[in-house]
């Protein structure tokens, strides 16, 4: 099986950019990173689905499946697109609600969570 080098480089670049944006503390950048990562995974699934072929529809004249395209990869990608758009809508709603409450888009550490984390740290016996 051979894969297109340009497509694999594109998948790698989309994945790298998506992970970089997911690590940001601004919600809109996180959303863009999530969408880029979803698109990279969709391209990867399509690439691993195999080469182009005949449509996966039998016309009744022959039942030979030689040279047919794999319909599973296409179905998985369509499902992933719907899930990604639903998740993007959910994150947009969270970002809108957060902006209305705090008038900022940055995600900050919650002071109560920081206090709980400090309580869980072991005491330093040397101090």
Task: For this entry, give a set of tags.
127 residues, mainly alpha, elongated
Counting DSSP E segments of at least 2 residues, the number of strands comes to 0
Residues in helices, as a percent range = 55-70%
**Poorly predicted tracts of residues:** none
Spell out the helices and strands N to C: HHHH
Q: What is the CA-CA span between the terminal residues?
A: 62 Å
Number of DSSP helices?
A: 4
Shape: elongated
Describe the main β-sheet briefly.
none
- SSE class: mainly alpha
Question: Over all CA atoms, what is the radius of gyration?
Answer: 23 Å
Q: Please tell me the overall pLDDT.
A: 85
Which percent band covers the strand fraction?
Answer: under 5%
What does this structure look like?
The chain contains four helices and no strands. It is an all-alpha fold and 127 residues long. It has helices at 5-22, 27-48, 71-102, 111-120. The radius of gyration is 23 Å and the shape is elongated. Helices cover 65% and strands 0% of the residues. The model has no long low-confidence stretch (mean pLDDT 85). Helix 1 packs antiparallel against helix 2 and helix 2 packs antiparallel against helix 3 (71-102).
Give a brief description.
The protein has 127 residues and is mainly α. It has helices at residues 5-22, 27-48, 71-102, 111-120.
List the helices and strands and how they pair.
Layout: H1 5-22, H2 27-48, H3 71-102, H4 111-120
Helix pairs in contact: 1-2, 2-3
């Amino acid at each position: 099986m051979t894969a297109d080098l340009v497509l694999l480089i594109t998948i790698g670049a989309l994945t790298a950019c998506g992970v970089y944006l997911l690590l940001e503390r601004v919600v809109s950048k996180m959303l863009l990173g999530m969408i880029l990562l979803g698109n990279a995974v969709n391209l990867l699934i399509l690439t691993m689905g195999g080469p182009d072929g005949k449509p996966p529809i039998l016309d009744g004249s022959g039942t030979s499946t030689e040279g047919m395209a794999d319909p599973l990869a296409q179905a998985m990608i369509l499902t992933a697109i719907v899930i990604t758009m639903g998740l993007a809508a959910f994150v947009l709603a969270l970002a809108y609600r957060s902006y209305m409450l705090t008038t900022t888009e940055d995600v900050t550490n919650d002071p109560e969570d920081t206090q709980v984390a400090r309580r869980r740290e072991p005491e330093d016996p040397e101090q």
